[in-house]
Each structure stands twice: as structure tokens, then as C-alpha cells.
Amino acid sequence: MFRPNFENTSSFFGVGFLFLLILSFSVVIYVSASFDPTLLTIPKAFAQSDIQTVKFRNLTIDLGNGVSTNAQISYPATGKGPFPGVLLVPGSGATDMNATINEDVKPFWQIANYLSERGFEVLRYDKRGIGPNLTIQDPNVWGNMTVTDLVNDAEKAFSILSAQPDVDPESISIVGHSEGTIIVPRIAIDNPDKVKNIVLMGTVAQNLIKDILYYQVVDLRSEYAKQILDTNNTGFVSINQIASDPLLDDIIELNSSLLNIDNVTKNGLEDETENQSNGNAYLNIYTQIKPLLIKDYENKIAFDLSKCYRIIGCSLWIKSETELEPNLSVIGNVSKAIPILILQGENDSATPLEQSLLLHQRLDEVNHSNHTLITYPNLGHFFYSSSEWQNGFGPIEPQVLADLYSWLYSHSKL
After folding, report:
1. Angle, to 10 degrees, between the axis of helix 107-117 and the axis of helix 398-410?
2. Of 95, 102, 168, 270, which is most buried by a Cβ count within 10 Å?
3. Could you tell me which residues are beta bridge partners of residue 60?
């Protein structure tokens, strides 16, 4: 066992309708335009906010080997059930049961309440070693976690939900976000007669470390330098631009000695010419910036048991994800009797649109006819308005929740 040092790497991860119907086998792809939430706003004078529409019960899940985690079930305030069940499987990093991003943004809490108000019983759980509000409660458990542990933990949570007396065990769906989209298909493959539906949000198709993390750290940021910062198309970007840009400033800070620059701050350089010993105030995107980004990626995946990243994970987890067979290779093993819904923001800079398209193509290839892909223009990884370069943080757009509910409703026993 070890006690890792945690590093905050949040800067590395940005954190009418228009329907485009594309028929592929029996698949329909919907592209939904941005949704105006004011259309659903209830005036405060008529809102009954004091009326309880959802009830909750807390429980502890025994994960084995002396490890346990907290969980919460939400369910309709009226009715005895049995209710169709939904298990929420979180993404990477130190993620609690609400998938907390900040005090105001808690996507899994939002999903659970929305679905439970409409007839579903939903279970969500803290990742092993994690407590409320991204708190790492047990560094040893967190630091020694692997993706196998995460799959096993989700399996146990699924069993707990299935055993609830007010849940219909024949109508349980599993919803995964980000890394959770790697775990969910594996549960469906292991439990073909127990899983009713699966939903993948912010989807991973390729290897999470070798492909997705490389894209986030290297490809996305070098392309950003090229398209946004290099306004004159010279192939060069000023050091001052880089040092003051939130998407790239860390490469200057982390490599200031290599670049012979002093007094580098996030607000830019005091005097970029004077502080540059070779008198050159620009970096070449291809021969200087991209190699620095590659170095940054290599440092992140280097096997160092003393180092952990809150937004990513620890070395054992990184190693296990690196060695894991990608989703693209396993998704075809999901029973054709299990419907699949893929929800994807088109401006997702963490798991880009191409990932969901790859899975959609693979499901077509294996003749899994009962799958649906819905993409959302201008939304990012957390299904909130985002640029194509950096994910915005805010509540899930209402149309996404409506689509999720409508699909689950039509594919569950309600």
C-alpha cells in the first residue's frame, strides 16, 4: 500500500427542434438543437416546491476485502412499485454519487431526481475511497484502485438495486457517463438476462489512456494552438499568448527551465523578449509546442506509485486502463436483446463526437439493430453549452434529460 500525493490537473480537461433522421438498419439518429429551458419554466407563484415528489433511502454497499462505499436510492414519492430500476455508473476521477463538479453542478443528482419524479427507482454510489464533494476519504483504497475493481463495484451495486423489494428485477437499466461507458457494456455482457437496457453518455470507444487521454493532452491542444492562437497561419505562437491561455499555460510553467524563461505566471510574461535568453519570443507549433505536449502526456502516464491525479486517477488505475481492451472491441458482445442508447454532445472535448460514431458504426456492423444515437449541437461532455475546445460546466440541458427519460420509458415496463 502507499499514500499518494494528489495533483490537481483540472486544466488539462476542460471540463422549435431540428431533427436529422438517419436510418441505418432500424436505427434512428436524432440531432437535437439547443433547447430553451424557459419554455418549461413554471412561475414561482404556481410552483409547488414544498411538495415532495421523490423519496430517498441511504445504504452502504459492501465492496469486499473490507472496503465499502455509500450509496443512495431515489424513488417516486407515491406508489408501491415495483418500479423500473436505473443504476448510474460514474466517470473517471474522484467521483462521488452525485458526479459532483462543483457546488451547483451535480449531474447524477439531476438525473436521479428527474427519473425518479417520473417513475424510476435510481441507485447512485460513491466510487471506492471517495466521499461527498470529491473528498478522497481513503487514499489507500483510491490509490490501489484498478478498472477491474470499478467493474466489480458496479456489478455489486447492480445486485443491490436488483434486490430492492420495490424494484422490478426484470426492468433494470444501466446508465454510464465517460469512463462509466467502459464499465456498463461489460456488466451487460456478464448479465445478459438481467440487464434490460444500457445508456452511454459522453462515450468512450477507444482506449481511455492511449487514445482519449492522448487526444485531450496532445491533439486537442496542438490543434487549438493552430486554429485559435496562430491567427496569421505562420506555424508559430507567441510565448506570451501561451502563458496567458488557460488551455496551454501549464506547458510554459512546467517547462520554463527548458525554455530558458524566468518569471512565468498565468497572467503572462513580464517582458517576453527580455526573459527569453535566445531572443525568440515564439514557439513553433509542430517542432516545439507539440513535443512539449507529448512530454506532458508521457509524464501523466508514467508509472509512479507516489503520484495521483484527482481528475484522472492513480498509476495502478492508469496501467489497468492502458491494458484494457477498448469498448470498440467488446461492444459487439452485448446481447442484441439489450437496447442501447448513446447520448453525445457534439462539442465534447473530453470524449469527442467521433467516439460515439465509432460505437454506432460497430453496432451496425454486428447487426445490433436496437440501438439509438442522439447527438446535441453546442453541448459538451457534461451536456451543457460548451465551445469545441473546452467543456462548460452547468446543469444538464432539459432536452437531454427529456430524451433520456423518453427512451427509458419506451424501453421499460411502465
Report:
1. 50
2. 95
3. 70
